[in-house]
């Protein structure tokens, strides 16, 4: 299992276990505990790998898509930019960015491009469409990708970065610190859903864990359930960026894997559930 961090109230110390309750409860009849329930909140169609990984361990899931994608202001420019060329690298940081790149690449007539990706999920999305990335970062973080991306001998040192309209500046700043020039084009946007099935939302509020794959999903959850209910959420994030969004929303039980990815995400959900079961057994 990959290393975990449990951030409580914005702290950065080592992982902590729930506090032990010392008061003895009166003897009561005990029934079999309900199977754990986990909420998957990525956009429609993007929760399958996480749900499949959890179900292999007997964990029940419900899908509650909290975000959806929309075209960004620079989307129509991408085919022309790809045709023009002059870029040593095209930087791709998510499966959605991969889908947008593939769309623009097809419209541009499939020009020769050298692609760098932030992680395995993004790589898989491109490989499935016949585009083999030339570089994958060792960990799926923009800062690491920017620091590790190699310079092309005799190249232009220019990177084309088709990004989300809400992307942080981590990758661009890291690339520029490494000596690259970056053409960042806002090709898509991520927006929160405005309404969900009330019965499904009620069930999600009773779940043991809610998973988040982006800061936008965290914001959408808070908007739907309210700040007070959100603070009680046991949140398991795909990586540190989403975890910081949870902390900013006041959530105090936030876990995430050391390296973003489905396998580590599944392991971290299992760890969160084990912590809850251990705390319940000590009551």
UniProtKB/TrEMBL annotation:
Pathway: Porphyrin-containing compound metabolism; protoporphyrin-IX biosynthesis; coproporphyrinogen-III from 5-aminolevulinate: step 3/4. Its EC number is 4.2.1.75. GO terms for biological process: protoporphyrinogen IX biosynthetic process; uroporphyrinogen III biosynthetic process. It is an enzyme of class 4 (lyase). It catalyses: hydroxymethylbilane = uroporphyrinogen III + H2O. It comes from the Eukaryota. GO terms for molecular function: uroporphyrinogen-III synthase activity. Residues 1-25 are annotated as: Disordered. Residues 51-266 form the Tetrapyrrole biosynthesis uroporphyrinogen III synthase domain. Keywords: Lyase, Porphyrin biosynthesis. Belongs to the uroporphyrinogen-III synthase family. Catalyzes cyclization of the linear tetrapyrrole, hydroxymethylbilane, to the macrocyclic uroporphyrinogen III. This is Uroporphyrinogen-III synthase.
